[in-house]
Specification:
- This protein is of the alpha+beta class and 181 residues long.
- 31% of the residues lie in helices and 29% in strands.
- The strands form 2 sheets. Strands 3, 4, 5, 6, 7, 8 and 9 form a 7-stranded mixed beta sheet that branches.
- A hairpin with a 2-residue loop joins β1 and β2.
- The longest helix has 26 residues.
- The radius of gyration is 17 Å and the shape is globular.
């Protein structure tokens, strides 16, 4: 049986580190529902620096493929949130220069490259990306209204969606990354 979360974790483990404020950070991949994302972001014991840049797979996706143990491929409607810590005082221009251009755009480019070159995934339909300035505000409302949680972080984010085919190949994942930003 193909488990999308496990395949994506292996693919995203190949991502290069991202430099934030002169410090290299490994991307933090996790998955779950929107509620789980809110709970993770609100954990006091999770250091802010260790959870960004964040790649969050929303696991409420449609999966198409044989249900038996012999399926070789499955197709999912992939929904990722790519986020990094930001500053609520930033203007759109400041966010573009401090979070999107140096962190989120290169991260998105590397994710697309990883999905295209991994040998385990293949994008099937046109991608959709949406930029969020202060994505926290949207989540903040959900957190407060639905879960009675007050989020502390402010972040900029990109939502990336595509139809993705995954296969059960066991070959080594080798991806050549080149930063064009």
């Amino acid at each position: 049986m193909i488990i999308p979360e496990e395949i994506l974790e292996k693919v995203f483990d190949t991502l290069p580190e991202i430099t934030i404020a002169g410090i290299d950070h490994q991307c933090f991949f996790n998955y779950g529902t929107l509620e789980e994302l809110i709970l993770l972001l609100n954990r006091k014991e999770t250091k802010q620096e260790s959870r960004y840049p964040l790649i969050w797979l929303l696991t409420e996706f449609k999966e198409t493929g044989d249900i038996d143990n012999h399926n070789k491929t499955t197709i999912i409607d992939l929904k990722l949130v790519l986020a990094t810590f930001s500053n609520e005082a930033y203007t759109s221009k400041e966010s573009l220069e401090t979070t999107f251009k140096p962190i989120l755009f290169p991260l998105l480019q590397n994710i697309v490259k990883a999905l295209d070159q991994s040998g385990r995934t293949q994008r099937k339909k046109k991608d959709e990306t949406v930029r969020y300035k202060f994505y926290k505000k949207e989540l903040k409302e959900i957190a407060e209204k639905q879960f009675n949680i007050i989020l502390q972080d402010t972040w900029d984010a990109i939502r990336f969606e595509c139809t993705l085919e995954l296969n059960d190949s066991q070959g080594e994942i080798r991806i050549i990354y080149k930063n064009n930003f």
